From TrEMBL:
InterPro entries registered for this protein in UniProt: DUF952 (IPR009297)
Species annotation: Niastella populi
The protein, known as: DUF952 domain-containing protein
Amino acid sequence: MPVIYHITSCNEWEAAFAKGSYAAPSLETEGFIHCCTRSQVQGVLQRYFKGATDLVLLEIATEKIQSRLVYEWSPAGADEFPHIYGPINTDAVISTGSPFNL
């Protein structure tokens, strides 16, 4: 089962879980939710979450995502990253944990 990852705050995830779907602020500002592969997690942490501690890593089953998933080139990461064009249904999240333990 292919999986992708998304990093968010514990508070944002708890609110989303109670609601049944998760929408990162980037969905409104950029039109998609930024995700990454397992090998990209550490780079994303270093570039965008330096010093943050209240984080959760969402492990997302790609076949369960109801919104459109597209892999697109990102100059910032010099790689293709998965982007989700819509909210993430919480039942697509198969596990949560600390991004610092990968």
